[in-house]
Amino acid sequence: MKRVVITGLGTISPLGNDVETFWNNLVNGVSGIDYIKSIDLSKLPIKVAAEVKNYDPKELGLDPSTIRRTDKYTQYALIAAKQAMEDSKLTVDPERLGVYIGSGVGGMDTFVAQTQKLLEEGGQWVSPLFIPMMISNIAAGNVAIAYNAQGPTLPVVTACATATHAFGEAFRAIKHGYADAIIAGGTEAAMHELAISGFANMKALTKVEDPKLASLPFDSRRQGFVLGEGAGILILEELEHARARGAHIYAEIVGYGNTCDAHHLTAPMPDGKCAANAMRLAAEEAKLTSEDFIHINAHGTGTPLNDKTETAAIKLALGEEAAYKALITSNKSMTGHGLGAAGGFEAIASVLALKNGIVPPTIGLDCPDPECDLDYVPHIARKANITIAFSNSLGFGGHNGCIAFRKY
Questions:
Q1: Residue-range domains of the chain with CATH
Q2: Is pLDDT above 90 for 41?
Q3: Tens digits of per-residue pLDDT, 167-206?
Q4: How many helices and strands, by DSSP H and E, does the chain display?
Q5: Which of 260, 236, 256 is nearest to 99 (CA)?
Q6: Are 365 and 376 in contact (CB under 8 A)?
Q7: pLDDT computed for residue 247 by the predictor
Q8: Catalytic site residues?
Q9: CA atoms of 195 and 15, how far apart (whole Å)
Q10: Arithmetic mean of pLDDT over the chain
Q11: Residue 305 has pLDDT above 90, yes or no
């Protein structure tokens, strides 16, 4: 079996529109959550979100034609992929290069705008680009075109587990010899009245109006998640291919678990068993030992059900002794919940935590829930010589994903 390493990172996020800014804000506990500025809030019960700031697609490298012909979720993917490819300096046979970039929602802005055009002006005025701008595989298609990626291309759609599953499936494709490198991750731009209303009416979003108190993973005061957006992209590359071209290697991806609760459309299985099984599969493939110093980038949404269930899952997967020693973080305390992009942000954070020996904090954790009694690195980042990092993602539909990175 081939070994797989990470050679490039790229992101556009509520914490910054490049990896360096994102990481610096993350380790310094800077929140990207604020009052929503991009849409009219007069008819909405939700006032805060984690929006991408200072978004100018031209300044971020997109040409006017691409901007006109793509939904924002695709633009985010193109921007993050460009950063990752430039970081990696990847050279590869096009037939051995793939793209595994997914989205939980797809082209929300395009869908709503063209639906309004249909209702107000008639079907003849619906854009001929409606479908290729809206469909949830088209970010991957556009990235493939941009980099002439003619190898395996498989957009993943598993709600909030999308990016993590994209990384895991890309890892397997390279491990089994189907590609030498894959541009992988998740992207989302669902900051729209329709999406916010849908999430709010199902009682998934917090209605807290103070941005500092809105996203509180593992805290007893948590009421729901805060909507986020952006994209997180990694370049996965076969180890010998990376070595041969002298690539900079951030970390090695060493394990992947993929399970389903098969329990409920939105609620996790209460005992956390199936989420634990995803972690256990990743740990087994990663050859986890008692000597490892473990970091877990938790799904940590700040919803009443997720956080206590995920805590139980971590204990089931690792055993209580190892679970209590692990350093656990929820980036969503700062990034909000980026849906299909969330696992992308969190994989970048996991890789950089390993590389830099710094575990970012979970901010806002002033009143820990007694049922969430592990070490969530509250308030302040912690220096630690971690050897392995797990990134968890749990999606509507019961989709559970876990990827394991090892220090290289």
A1: 4-244 (3.40.47.10), 256-406 (3.40.47.10)
A2: no
A3: 999 999 999 999 999 999 999 999 999 999 999 999 999 9
A4: 15, 13
A5: 236
A6: yes
A7: 98
A8: 160, 299, 337
A9: 21
A10: 97
A11: yes
CA distance linking residue 46 with residue 199, whole number of Å = 10
Give me the phi and psi of 257, to 5 degrees please: -130, 140
Convert the pLDDT of each residue in 332-373 to its tens digit: 999 999 999 999 999 999 999 999 999 999 999 999 999 999
Q: Distance of alpha carbon 347 from its chain centroid, rounded?
A: 7
Q: Which of 383, 360, 355 is nearest to 250 (CA)?
A: 355
Q: What is the pLDDT of residues 85-134, one digit of tens each?
A: 999 999 999 999 999 999 999 999 999 999 999 999 999 999 999 999 99
Enclosing H/E stretch for 350: helix 342-356
The phi and psi torsions of 246 (rounded to 5 degrees) equal 70, 35
Is 357 within 8 Å of 208 (Cβ atoms)? no
Alpha-carbon gap, residue 331 to 349, rounded angstroms: 8
Query: Quick one: pLDDT at residue 42?
Result: 85
CA dihedral 306, 310, 312, 318 (to 10 degrees): 180
Contacts of 297 (CB under 8 A, 6+ apart): 328, 329, 330, 331, 346, 347, 349, 350, 353, 389, 390, 391, 392
Please, which residues have CB within 8 angstroms of residue 67's CB and are 6 or more apart in sequence?
57, 58, 75
Tell me, what's the pLDDT at 308? 97
With contact defined as beta carbons under 8 Å apart, do 1 and 254 qualify? no
pLDDT of residue 40: 86
Residue 102 parent element (H or E): strand 97-102
Q: How many CA atoms lie within 13 A of 259 on its CB side?
A: 19
With residue 295 as reference, give the H or E element that holds it: strand 294-297
Residue 314 to residue 279: CA distance in whole angstroms = 8
Specify the residue for token string 């034609």: 65
Residue 260 host element (H or E): strand 251-260
Distance of CA 354 to the CA centre of its chain: 17
Tokens of 305: 């059900």
- What pTM was estimated for this model as a whole? 0.97
